[in-house]
């Protein structure tokens, strides 16, 4: 299968979290993923987008970029914001850690992304935004 790519930019509002889920689901549909694979990918994207909205922009206006690439039976997806960035990525990736305890968040976003995808990389710096890169290999049907 040849490579197929998509790029999307959308506003950092909570309504667009479900939009991002639907876009990634439609993008991978031609690979005929299992229900579990579909749920895993949609959940990982949802967590990454929610992190942009809540932590990256703190609920303020901003743009989120979602890039997807399919090659053979492998999906790579990037979720990118230009928000406040993460001071300590390693600490932020610890289960139950949250930068916003006032919002009663569980602090499991990165843990879910890591569990549901085959690879996860996070690049961030204070004041420079955050890039979450994930990869998932889909089963052969």
UniProtKB/TrEMBL annotation:
NCBIfam families assigned: spIIAB
Protein name according to UniProt: Anti-sigma F factor
InterPro entries noted in UniProt: Anti-sigma-factor_SerPK, Anti-sigma_F, HATPase_C_sf, HATPase_dom
Stretches assigned to the Histidine kinase/HSP90-like ATPase domain: 36-140
A Pfam family the protein falls into: HATPase_c_2
Catalytic EC class: transferase
Gene Ontology MF annotations: ATP binding; protein serine/threonine kinase activity; sigma factor antagonist activity
Organism of provenance: Candidatus Onthocola gallistercoris
EC number: 2.7.11.1
Any one GO biological process: sporulation resulting in formation of a cellular spore
Protein's UniProt keywords contain Transport: no
Key words, A-Z: ATP-binding, Kinase, Nucleotide-binding, Serine/threonine-protein kinase, Sporulation, Transferase
Residues annotated as signal peptide: none
């Amino acid at each position: 299968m040849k490579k197929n790519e998509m790029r999307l930019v959308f506003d950092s509002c909570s309504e667009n979290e479900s939009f991002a889920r639907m876009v990634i689901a439609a993008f991978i549909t031609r690979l005929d993923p299992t229900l579990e694979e579909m749920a895993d990918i949609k959940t990982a994207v949802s967590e990454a987008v929610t992190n942009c909205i809540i932590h990256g922009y703190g609920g303020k206006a901003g743009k989120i970029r979602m890039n997807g690439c399919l090659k053979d039976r492998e999906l790579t997806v990037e979720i990118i914001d230009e928000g406040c960035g993460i001071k300590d990525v390693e600490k932020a990736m610890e289960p139950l850690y949250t930068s916003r305890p006032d919002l009663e968040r569980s602090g499991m976003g990165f843990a879910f992304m890591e569990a549901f995808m085959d690879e996860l990389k996070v690049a961030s710096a204070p004041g420079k935004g955050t890039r979450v890169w994930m990869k998932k290999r889909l089963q052969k049907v």
